[in-house]
Specification:
Elements: E1 5-6, H1 28-39, H2 45-52, E2 53-54, E3 57-58, H3 79-88, E4 91-93, H4 94-100, H5 105-117, E5 121-124, E6 131-134, H6 137-145, H7 149-166, H8 168-173, H9 175-184, H10 188-204, H11 208-222, H12 229-249, H13 255-271, H14 274-291, H15 294-311, H16 314-330, H17 334-351, H18 362-375, H19 378-395, H20 398-414, H21 418-435, H22 439-454, H23 458-474, H24 481-494, H25 498-511, H26 519-532, H27 536-553, H28 556-572, H29 576-588, H30 597-610
Antiparallel strand pairs: 1-4, 2-3, 4-6, 5-6
Helix pairs in contact: 3-6, 7-9, 9-10, 10-11, 11-12, 12-13, 13-14, 14-15, 14-16, 15-16, 16-17, 16-18, 17-18, 18-19, 18-20, 19-20, 20-21, 20-22, 21-22, 22-23, 22-24, 23-24, 24-25, 24-26, 25-26, 26-27, 26-28, 27-28, 28-29, 28-30, 29-30
Length: about 600
């Protein structure tokens, strides 16, 4: 009873193998002739002949049958069975057909045997456990099209009611089938509910494209209902999940995601529901953040926080703090970002609220890890990164898992641990490819490319980073683009292409002037490359500007790298006291992370300067 039917045009439809020797293997010419006949609305001559005779001679029940289209079955006594079966689907079970079509069992079995003898359907098993399949979709279509539209609607309604009432387990397992029958029956109320259930089920198993199509179908049916406040509320709920699915499959900057967010926000404003206004304001803010417009995103985040504080629920407050901490991070407002992170995590701990939508835990926690590293807390960054991965793996959302592994790889990249970065990025890419997860897969490709270059495969790393950044920019996703271009510059330099690397760093400066958080790192990398080319004055200027900007942002990790570059220059010109005075106070201000390459190198340089 687990397998009953496969409806017309259902995704992923398979085919049953011929059950016994009476289904002979056809030559390629016979297959072509059959296909041409079906496309012209005729049954193949071979099938007509099969209906008219068997090895036992003429069959009396074919007398007077026409041979055009599905009319060949008229007067044969089983056209009704074929038509009802066509409504059920390309594949159907005896048990469901019998429940939908009241008919004496011997007559039903006889009709099905005749359909099988005529090679119109394949059979597997013995009634009442038998399963059938129309030999060709066009045969099913011919039977279906022979029905009056009113009769089709009636039969679809009967199939839907039968499924709901007599086969509830099946209806629950395959809600999209029930939804399709309610839709064809013109039962909009029931169809909308069934499409929603189908979408949620598809989403839960990571079938995001199916979920999107189910939401579209449900929204289309919803629009056939009279306008009302209730309809708006139902649409808003569907839009909530549609946005969540679009974020996963296409990214926040995709036109469909933006349009859906705008529509949802309009519905939320119409309803006057503050919680919904926060939710859909957050979707809009997230879209703006993804484009790299950090100033507008920060303004929207402030509006969100005001609404959330008025509404007061943990969900709204957590949502507002999430967007505020991310916006602050990219603007280089690291202390404020950390303060918002603390408030966000405090709301979760105090209320027990658990974020439901993809990214609503992994993204803020992942940025909390990045923020901690930039502030100079490597161990705290590792701890937060581990929490991201643990949460994602426990929840098993493909988007969250992909994002968590990307985030882990990003932290390893900042820690200068390329092997670990490569391993994490590979996991993110694998998950993203398997479930068609959008942005995290591309972001992880940047991390992977950087790691490959560091490990000696610069050419492949360069290609991977370029492909990823091109795809992101084409999609309108510019968040972190300045850092991704810096990673490309580092890979180019490792491949001996220093001039190209410098050109790429200029691109990084121009790619998004609003993204300040990575600017000290861009300056430090440019300083190192200019030093290689003997441009000492320009290199020193870059190091000093990087130090100054990092200090303004409290970006101690980036300040340390620039300070080491400048300290080496000072040492080279014989000014060891100045080098030591620059580096020593900064090094002693760190309280953790002494096992990281940066702090190990700083300690070694200080020891050298002390000699």
């Amino acid at each position: 009873m687990a397998w009953f039917f496969r409806p017309r045009g259902e995704r992923g439809a398979g085919s049953l193998p011929p059950p016994d020797s009476r289904y002979q293997q056809l030559t390629s010419e016979e297959v072509v002739r059959d296909q041409e006949a079906l496309e012209e609305g005729r049954l193949p001559e071979r099938v007509v002949a099969r209906i008219s005779r068997t090895g036992r001679g003429e069959l009396p029940w074919v007398q007077g049958a026409t041979v055009t289209g599905f009319g060949v079955l008229e007067g044969l006594g089983f056209e009704q069975v074929a038509q009802v079966a066509a409504v059920i689907g390309r594949e159907f079970s005896y048990e469901l057909l019998q429940a939908v079509l009241p008919m004496p069992e011997d007559e039903l079995q006889s009709a099905l045997e005749k359909l099988a003898d005529a090679e119109l359907v394949y059979t597997r098993g013995i009634a009442p456990e038998a399963v059938y399949q129309f030999k060709h979709a066009l045969i099913q279509d011919a039977a279906y099209e022979a029905l009056l539209k009113s009769r089709r609607r009636e039969l679809h309604g009967r199939v839907a009611r039968t499924l709901a009432e007599k086969f509830p387990a099946l209806a629950q397992a395959q809600p999209e089938v029930l939804a399709r029958h309610w839709t064809q029956a013109g039962e909009a109320e029931r169809a909308v509910e069934a499409w929603k259930n189908a979408a949620i089920k598809a989403y839960s198993r990571g079938a995001y494209k199916e979920a999107l199509e189910d939401y579209r179908q449900g929204l289309a049916m919803l629009q056939t209902l009279p306008e009302s406040a209730e309809r708006d509320i139902r649409e808003l709920k569907l839009r909530n999940w549609q946005i969540a699915t679009l974020v996963v499959t296409k990214g926040l900057t995709a036109p469909e995601a933006v349009e859906t967010s705008v529509r949802a926000r309009a519905l939320a404003e119409k309803s006057g529901n503050l919680a919904q206004l926060v939710a859909h304001g957050a979707a809009l803010c997230g879209s703006v953040l993804a484009t790299g417009d950090n100033s507008s995103a920060a303004a929207l985040a402030d509006q969100l926080l005001d609404l959330a504080q008025r509404e007061g629920s943990p969900a709204s407050l957590a949502t507002a703090y999430l967007h505020k901490l991310v916006a602050c991070f990219y603007r280089g407002e690291l202390r404020e970002s950390e303060e918002r992170f603390t408030r966000w995590i405090g709301v979760l701990k105090a209320s027990g609220f658990r974020p439901l939508y993809p990214g609503t835990f992994t993204i803020p926690m992942g940025h909390g890890a990045l923020n901690a590293w930039v502030l100079g807390y490597a161990e705290k960054a590792r701890e937060r990164s581990a929490q991201v991965t643990a949460f994602a793996c426990e929840g098993k959302s493909p988007y969250d898992v992909a994002y968590a592994y990307f985030s882990e790889g990003f932290i390893y990249r900042l820690l200068r641990e390329p092997r670990e970065a490569e391993a994490a990025a590979r996991k993110a890419i694998t998950i993203s490819d398997k479930y068609t997860v959008s942005s995290p897969g591309q972001w992880a490709c940047v991390v992977m490319g950087w790691a490959q270059a560091q490990l000696g495969n610069a050419e492949e790393g360069i290609l991977r980073i370029r492909e990823a950044t091109d795809a992101l920019l084409k999609a309108g996703t510019r968040i972190a683009i300045t850092d991704f271009l810096t990673a490309l510059a580092e890979a180019l330099a490792l491949n001996g292409m220093v001039e190209d690397a410098l050109g790429t760093l200029e691109d990084a400066f121009q790619a998004n002037p609003q993204e300040l958080v990575f600017r000290p790192h861009i300056l430090q990398v440019r300083g190192e490359l200019r030093l290689k080319l003997g441009q000492s004055e320009l290199a020193e200027a870059d190091f000093r500007e990087a130090i100054s900007l990092a200090q303004k942002m409290s970006a101690k990790a980036f300040e340390l790298r620039a300070a080491m570059g400048l300290a080496r220059m000072l040492e080279a010109r014989g000014d060891r006291p100045a080098a030591r005075d620059l580096l020593a106070p900064l090094y002693t201000s760190f309280t953790e992370g002494f096992d990281t390459p940066d702090l190990k190198e700083a300690k070694a340089l200080l020891d050298e300067l002390a000699e």
